[in-house]
Amino acid sequence: MQCDYFNICGGCNLGRFTYDEQLSIKINKEKERFQTLYNNAFDIIKSDDGAFRNRAEFRIWKIFDKGNNFTLHYAMNDKEKNILPIKSCSIVNNNISNIMPKLLNKLENIKILNHKLFTIEFLSSMANDLLVTLIYHTVLNDDWKEEASKLQVEFGIKIIGRSRKQKIILSEDFISEYFNIQHSTFNIRYKEGGFTQPNQKVNIQMIEWVLNNIVSNDDLCELYCGGGNFTLPLSKKFTKVLATEISKTSINSAKINCELNDIQNIKFIRMSSEEFVEAKNGVREFRRITQENIKLDDYNFSTIFVDPPRAGLDETTQKLCSDFAQIIYISCNPETLKRDLEKLSLTHKIEKFAFFDQFAFSSHIESGVILRKLNH
Q1: 216 is in which domain, residue-wise?
Q2: Which of 55, 68, 163, 262 yields a CA-CA distance of 20 to 30 A from 296?
Q3: Is 245 one of the catalytic residues?
Q4: Which one of 3, 9, 12, 332 is the catalytic residue?
């Protein structure tokens, strides 16, 4: 991949290397980190070398000439965290890349659309569904709606306008994605404001890696389920699935995605992992569980799936995991993953370990671990 801003832009801090070089740097670092916990081969899931990212966010920057006329630019932070105006971004997918200059040119010439515009967010699917969120430091009125609606029709995209305490949805606030996994096609809606995986091709391979390496029987408990990205494909492997998520936006998306795919064996609860531990251990009763007509005693859990935030698992959730025959752990932070695995390895053995290059050319890497209970 070639980019005019490699070694300048702070977004790709490994941009001075080739794809294989940057991946090798990250993998070698993580192998060393986990060498006391795992001695077998690591599975490596590579990204495309460029045009892989299906969501992106850019600041909008105005550069004025001596006559006080401005040109509009996308902007990132450079390595010293100063503003870096850019004309293109090589890591975003073609759907986003193609619209970026056309959209900026239109915005530059329509005053009501560029006035106090400070950020643009892009969310795109492999099915070429594209949602653009324009974020402002000013109140949006009917004139803004009229011009933005014209732009939406002209480019065949979906537009949302945001400002403080204001959200204007001109058509829809989600994109539709379709992907095939193990001979099943899944229709997933990714909602604006909800969490989505940034690299869809790697995301699909992550799901397939999990499905190909687990023992599937009885029921599945999933914590931090998001919009059901893993939940729906995993439901094909288990009798029943109970999934939790704290975000109201994500849990609503998960329920919609279940309906879209006519999946009947999943129940969702909006609660934190800590709350679920309290409910499962009978410490507290939660109306949210009874409202969903869920009885925890009806489940025969064999497997727990966790995909926590960067902070990793709290102590109560670590203890909960230790009771399951099989643990599937997806991590976005190797440091907290190592901490958690040191605890979980007291009761479980690491059977499979993988690295997923979701964020190529950055120092970040995702991990996947499958553990099985000792003497089970």
Answers
A1: 19-49+197-373
A2: 262
A3: no
A4: 332
